[in-house]
Amino acid sequence: KSVSAFAPATCANVAVGFDILGFAIHNVGDIVTLKKRDDNQIIIVEISGESNIPLETSKNAASAVVKKLCDDLSISTGFSIYIQKGIAIGSGMGGSAASSVAALVALNAFLENPLSKNELAEYALFGEEIACGHKHADNIVPSLFGGMTLIQSSNPINVVTLPSLEIYNIVIHPHLRVNTKDARDALQNDLSLKLHVKQCANLASFISAIYKNDLELLKKSSEDYVVEPQRAKLIPNFYEVKQSAMDSGAISVSFSGSGPSLFAFAENEFMANKIAKNMQDKFKEYGIESDFWISNFK
Ligand code: HSE
Fold this sequence. Notes:
single chain, alpha+beta, 10 helices, transferase, homoserine kinase activity, kinase
């Protein structure tokens, strides 16, 4: 018996919501297939589409979460795991989260769905810790739930699914690599009260804009005062590319997760294509090739 599941790539943080906001990029992701074995081993047999991903069961996020769930449920079935990576590693598009989520959804389906999404999310968090040393939930949750999500609490997991914005999103991946752990280590732990107030005001207005589908307010409240300024130095020409997107009419622009990918919001599909091409051209001006995806929140 074999079961496959797809889990989408994700854009975490969405500028103002470090570690708590994220959305699914529905048209790109990873596929994980589990094939029942005759012995009780859990092993990765194949990873296609990416190299440099650990194959060892305890070090690979997808196999580690499968093993943990099997151990916790006292399941002695062995599985051969096949991973088709649609997401480049170190791209800031939630690659490790998508592999863990797809593996867990496949295992849950194999077992006839005994676990809720919240329970699966707890296991996927364990996978994030293995992949990048930190249990952030803002990739796994949108990958699992779809759409745009807000994490009210990650211990225990409590998810707020936000209304679908009637706009398009662009995620552009410059061919660079940023390690999430390094991008987290680049952040200061302390925050001034003044910045905290500015960021809270934007986050609250951003969420309010989503409920009202108010694009003016969304644009006004999309500036990240806390994390983006500290990470900008990790991506060459970040501000130039951001400016080119804003000049082309983007509503919001910032890093996708810890970068190097960027996201932008656009009013409609035509604008999204224009913004994406201008961002791509700007990267190219600096000698950096890139790929982009355009999708909506439906
Ligand atoms: N919130 C996490 C970070 C997402 O920015 O470090 C990583 O994809």
